């Protein structure tokens, strides 16, 4: 049997806070000696395990005003606070506060939701809306969605877009407002107030802003209709969508004026700032016409790591200018890209998405698109908007930096604004000491973290066009034991969370310093960590150097995780296009650690036959090598890379089982279950031994040398910078030599 990879996950379900170290270093010297990153990933809408929940159906309203706050640090009372006869002692700062009657006895406190360990959901404010067009409503009390569809592509692309927007309508709440806009060489704005929808086409000039804007033809209050009362009209309008280039000669280039379209739409909603608007864009080609027209760079495949290769496409600056306008009206931009014709320019459009926490999904082609499924899945889940997030720390340490799609407040430290997020959204923070003496510990204060997340959500009222706009507050307080020596930190390390923190740092380095520097930064971090580890484990001779962290199995996945980043879609210099790398960077800065791990180092599972829905080895997966196919104990293998599922039949499976798995087989049921439980529907590839498709699957087995597969080769493999291209075994050998040299110099 083939060796399995070490444990990936240290997840505790039902938590918003997941630290990289499940024990807090007592001093900075202990932390530095260990060499591990210290921080947390934050999942503010993670499912709760208590009575309250982010799930609308399980939400138990507890008034936020009933929960007292510390007069010194403004932290909230929790199960970790100490109590005296007339006072409660804050678990974060140790300050004494007057004790309300509600908490006067231990028996009374035992029955209070906010005094339980885990996530607590509180209600700050609730407004019930019966008429979405009421002039008394605030903007965030009037949710609106505008679908922007690129119709400059083929008829097949527009057909997929039609199916997707129809699925979107089914997912959106009936009380919401909806508008439909198309873009090609013109901007098409639909008037859907009657049973016979009409589209007004506005020409886009070659350069500059549109002289006649959307608001001049159809103001926002005329363009938006309520889904419940106009659903048939909306469906009729969607069915009229057709390609504007399908009748043109093949040599006539398509025109996509997306930049001018967005500029005009933003102007319309700036003039009428009465909506909480979300733009849902379906695009199939690069914006190449009018304002914001992009020019494809000379090298579409990101193989070169030069200043020119890192420079955004010409025209990207127009989308950067739109960021502040999007923020000013509290709008959100979502982007669904179907790359029908090569380069799209995702990196240029990414600021529109990231500035407000929008969604981005990239499909390499029409054949990999799952647009209807993804649109329905994404918009059927609960959303939070206009949120603020703060992670409070007990005495001695604090938050030093935040990562993800959130913005630091200009006035208050450690306060972050989140324009939009959902149950899958994940953020990260670095922690640092704010006192030379390290973490303060006494009878009243132990190392403690408290996350407060205040947000707005829209809750539909069943069988009605009325809805509630609720302002909610989520709290979670966790206590973390102390670590007084580096070995304690090694035993408490969470490899997946460490990988998430590394991803954020590497993506920032890639943006500022380039791909090559980011790769070296990641490799050097691993070499330093392995050196610190061996120093603390008292291993100094080359023959005993342990670069696989064998004495701490919870860290054993780290070398493979780093290797996977180097050889995978995030950092391999030639494996993916610029568009796909931009998409992967977006995912790695927003996904939870488990999903991110699948992107960096996919999970390989073996199945005995198509009649089995459980893998042969139920651990953490097999090493990504051909050896695993020969010794993994199965005949069919599934490689899960989060956005892709690759199913491979070995020769025995080809002889024994139907290819691909029959719809009624247990294996197909397993695949379907994976697809249904994923935030983005993965595309499934089928291949078999002896077929031309097998080479693509073998190429995904990254622990084998890249040169033998013809993908991702770089360097000569003799030096540290090119070690990953020669396979995982060589990578460890070169890492061991680097560690030896580092320890000799230190």
Gross geometry: globular
Strand content: 15-25%
Report how far the terminal alpha carbons are from each other. Answer: 41 Å
Overall mean confidence score, pLDDT: 89
Instruction: List the total number of helices.
Output: 23
Per-chain topology:
Elements: E1 17-19, E2 23-25, H1 28-34, E3 39-42, E4 82-83, E5 87-89, E6 96-98, H2 106-110, E7 119-129, E8 143-150, H3 155-171, E9 177-183, E10 186-191, E11 198-203, H4 214-217, H5 220-223, E12 225-226, H6 227-239, H7 258-271, E13 276-283, H8 307-310, H9 317-328, E14 332-338, H10 346-354, E15 360-363, H11 371-380, E16 383-393, E17 397-403, E18 407-408, E19 415-422, E20 427-433, E21 448-460, E22 467-479, E23 481-483, H12 486-491, H13 495-513, H14 515-536, H15 558-567, H16 578-588, H17 593-600, E24 603-607, H18 626-631, E25 636-640, E26 644-649, H19 651-656, H20 666-676, E27 683-688, H21 694-699, H22 706-709, H23 728-745
Parallel strand pairs: 2-23, 8-9, 8-13, 13-14, 14-15, 26-27
Antiparallel strand pairs: 1-3, 3-20, 4-5, 5-6, 7-22, 9-10, 9-12, 10-11, 16-19, 16-21, 17-20, 18-19, 21-22, 24-25, 25-26
Helix pairs in contact: 3-6, 3-11, 7-9, 9-10, 10-16, 13-14, 13-17, 14-15, 14-23
Question: Can you give me a brief rundown of this structure?
Answer:
The protein is of the alpha+beta class and 746 residues long.
Could you characterize what this model shows?
- This protein has 746 residues and is α+β, with helices and mostly antiparallel strands.
- Helix content is 30%, strand content 22%.
- The strands form six sheets. Strands 8, 9, 10, 11, 12, 13, 14 and 15 form an eight-stranded mixed β-sheet that branches. It has a six-stranded antiparallel β-sheet with strand order 7-22-21-16-19-18, with no helix packed on it.
- Helix 3 (155-171) runs antiparallel to helix 6, helix 13 (495-513) runs antiparallel to helix 14 (515-536) and helix 14 (515-536) packs antiparallel against helix 15 (558-567).
């Amino acid at each position: 049997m083939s060796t399995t990879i070490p444990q990936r996950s240290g997840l505790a379900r039902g938590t918003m806070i997941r630290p990289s170290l499940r024990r807090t270093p007592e001093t900075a010297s202990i932390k530095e000696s260990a060499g591990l990153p210290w921080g947390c990933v934050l999942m503010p809408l993670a499912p709760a395990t208590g009575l309250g929940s982010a799930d609308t159906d399980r939400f138990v309203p507890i008034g936020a005003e009933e929960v007292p706050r510390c007069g010194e640090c403004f932290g909230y009372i929790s199960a970790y606070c100490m109590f005296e006869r007339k006072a409660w002692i804050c678990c974060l700062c140790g300050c004494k506060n007057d004790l309300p009657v509600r908490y006067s006895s231990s028996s009374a406190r035992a029955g209070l939701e906010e005094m339980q360990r885990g996530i607590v959901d509180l209600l700050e404010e609730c407004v019930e809306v019966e008429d979405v067009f009421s002039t008394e409503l605030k903007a965030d009390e009037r949710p609106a969605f505008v679908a922007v569809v690129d119709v400059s592509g083929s008829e097949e692309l527009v057909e997929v877009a039609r199916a997707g927007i129809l699925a979107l309508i089914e997912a959106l709440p009936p009380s919401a407002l909806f508008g439909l806009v198309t873009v090609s060489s013109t901007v098409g704005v639909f008037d859907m107030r009657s049973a016979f929808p009409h589209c007004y086409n506005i020409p886009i000039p070659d350069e500059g802003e549109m002289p006649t804007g959307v608001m001049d033809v159809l103001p926002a209050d005329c363009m938006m209709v309520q889904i419940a009362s106009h659903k048939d009209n909306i469906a009729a309008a969607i069915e009229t969508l057709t390609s504007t280039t399908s009748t043109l000669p093949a040599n006539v280039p398509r025109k996509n004026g997306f930049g001018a379209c967005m500029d005009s739409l933003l102007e319309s909603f700036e003039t009428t700032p009465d909506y909480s608007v979300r733009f849902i864009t379906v695009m199939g080609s690069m914006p190449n016409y009018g304002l914001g027209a992009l020019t494809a760079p000379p090298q579409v495949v990101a193989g070169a790591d030069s200043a020119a290769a890192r420079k955004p496409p010409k025209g990207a600056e127009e989308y950067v200018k739109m960021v502040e306008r999007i923020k000013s009206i509290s709008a959100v931009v979502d982007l669904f890209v179907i790359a029908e014709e090569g380069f799209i320019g995702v990196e240029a459009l990414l600021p529109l998405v990231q500035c407000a926490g929008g969604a981005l999904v990239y499909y390499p082609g029409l054949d990999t698109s799952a647009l209807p499924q993804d649109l329905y899945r994404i918009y059927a889940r609960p959303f939070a908007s206009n949120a603020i997030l703060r992670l409070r720390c007990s005495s001695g340490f604090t938050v030093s930096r935040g990562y993800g799609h959130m913005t630091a407040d200009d006035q208050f430290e450690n306060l972050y604004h989140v324009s939009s997020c959902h149950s899958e959204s994940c953020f990260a923070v670095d922690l640092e000491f704010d006192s030379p003496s390290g973490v303060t510990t006494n009878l009243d204060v132990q190392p403690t973290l408290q996350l407060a997340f205040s947000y707005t959500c829209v809750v539909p009222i069943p069988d009605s066009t009325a809805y509630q706009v609720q302002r909610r507050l989520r709290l979670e307080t966790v206590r973390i034991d102390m670590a007084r020596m580096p070995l304690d930190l090694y035993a408490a390390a969470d490899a997946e969370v460490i990988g998430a923190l590394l991803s954020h740092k590497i993506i920032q380095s890639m943006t500022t310093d380039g791909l090559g520097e980011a790769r070296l930064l990641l490799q050097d971090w691993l070499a330093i960590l392995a050196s610190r580890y061996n120093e603390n484990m008292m291993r100094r001779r080359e023959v005993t150097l342990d670069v696989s962290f064998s004495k701490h199995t919870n860290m054993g996945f780290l070398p493979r995780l780093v290797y996977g980043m180097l050889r995978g879609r995030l950092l391999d210099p030639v494996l993916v296009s610029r568009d796909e790398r931009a998409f992967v960077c977006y995912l790695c800065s927003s996904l939870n650690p488990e999903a991110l791990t699948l992107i960096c180092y996919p999970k390989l599972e073996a199945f005995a036959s198509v009649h089995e829905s459980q893998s042969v080895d139920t651990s953490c997966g097999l090493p990504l090598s051909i050896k695993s196919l020969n010794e993994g104990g199965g005949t069919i293998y599934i490689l899960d890379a989060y956005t892709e599922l690759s199913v491979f039949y070995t020769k025995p499976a080809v002889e024994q089982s139907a290819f691909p798995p029959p719809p009624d087989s247990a294996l197909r049921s397993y695949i379907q279950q994976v697809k249904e439980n994923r935030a983005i529907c993965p595309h499934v590839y089928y291949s078999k031994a002896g077929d031309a498709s097998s080479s693509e699957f073998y190429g995904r087995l990254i622990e084998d040398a890249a040169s033998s597969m013809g993908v991702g080769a770089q360097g000569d493999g003799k030096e540290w910078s090119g070690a990953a291209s020669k396979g995982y075994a060589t990578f460890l050998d070169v890492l061991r030599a680097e560690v030896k040299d580092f320890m000799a110099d230190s």
